[in-house]
Design brief:
Blueprint: H1 5-19, H2 35-48, H3 53-63, H4 74-83, H5 85-97, E1 106-117, H6 120-125, E2 133-137, E3 142-153, E4 159-165, H7 171-181, H8 183-187, E5 192-195, H9 203-211, E6 214-217, H10 230-249, H11 261-284
Parallel strand pairs: 1-5, 5-6
Antiparallel strand pairs: 1-3, 2-3, 3-4
Helix pairs in contact: 1-2, 2-11, 5-11
Length: 298
């Protein structure tokens, strides 16, 4: 099967439509742009790197009329995409479940900055005040104002859990809350191995993970005895760095353009779904590299 954007979108549309088959339809006239088409349109926007919704809709009208007979104006599209956040998160999980990666008993976790403002006046008048905050990215030696994206994925890069949080909140606290909310996923995977960096080091945190049946594998700190599994850790840790690079390099995570809580949440969810859709389609079509977006991003 060909791996191009049209093929991916058609397969995704069918998957979403089949998943929604048992959901009762709301009363009233059905929208001219269906729910399945809306989510496919949002995935294409993220895949092709359009930061402006108005520019994306103009491009889609010119080049993708064969896939979308009707396209709304920018205000209507923006309103519907923001309202679809719960469905976007659910479809991400549906796609992950439809691959062998879902049953992987090795998870990798890390966090990456999501800048939301570049100037002091923006910080002072932003609607994100009280959620976004100042943080420091050690990987790039820079300060920023915004949020952090916490991601738990498989070694293949398939997203399992994700959350946005104030960068001043302790990473262990955020991850613990994520695992608590989705405790059923952990319970389904006895002997789960969680790979993290030194920022998640804590005896108390490791004990709480152990109580959930999770073994934490992380780098050894200078004041510790050598921990087990260190020879393999560097290679595996590079996988999560590569996933973050995909978000920033190909899916333009830092150019999300969100200005409100709902706007930023749905734009990040849009990119997580896009990555999951590419991995899902590559898996279904038997591609050698599951996390390759090259066939779809142009």
């Amino acid at each position: 099967m060909e791996t191009d954007l049209d093929t991916l979108v058609i397969a995704l549309y069918v998957k979403i439509d089949d998943d929604a088959a048992g959901v009762p339809r709301l009363p009233g006239r059905p929208p001219r742009l269906s729910h399945s088409e809306l989510i496919c349109l949002a995935v294409m926007q993220a895949m092709l790197g359009f930061h402006s919704e108005a520019r994306w809709l103009r491009h889609a009208r010119k080049h993708y009329g064969h896939l979308f007979p009707f396209l709304p104006q920018q205000p209507g599209y923006n309103k519907r995409v923001r309202a679809a956040l719960p469905q976007i998160r659910r479809i991400t999980r549906v796609l992950a479940r439809d691959t062998d990666f879902w049953h992987d008993t090795v998870w990798i976790t890390d966090s990456t900055p999501v800048p939301c403002g570049m100037s002091r006046p923006t910080v002072l008048r932003s609607e994100l005040a009280g959620w976004a905050n100042y943080g420091y990215c050690a990987s790039h030696s820079r300060f920023y104002w915004g949020l952090r994206l916490f991601l738990v994925c498989t070694p293949a890069g398939m997203p399992i859990l994700w959350a946005l949080a104030d960068p001043k909140i302790d990473e262990r606290e955020v991850l613990a809350a994520m695992l608590e909310v989705d405790a059923d996923l952990v319970a389904e995977r006895p002997g789960l191995l969680l790979i993290a960096d030194k920022g998640f080091a804590s005896r108390e945190f490791e004990r709480s993970l152990s109580a959930q049946g999770i073994t934490l594998l992380r780098p050894t700190r200078k004041n510790e005895a050598r921990r087990p599994g260190q020879p393999l850790l560097k290679k595996v840790r590079q996988l999560i760095e590569s996933v973050n690079d995909t978000f920033k390099g190909q899916l333009d995570l830092e150019q999300h353009g969100g200005r409100t809580r709902e706007g930023i949440a749905v734009r990040v969810a849009q990119r997580v779904l896009t990555l999951a859709a590419a991995i899902w389609h590559n898996f279904q079509t038997g591609q050698a590299v599951s996390r390759s977006l090259t066939a779809y991003d142009h």
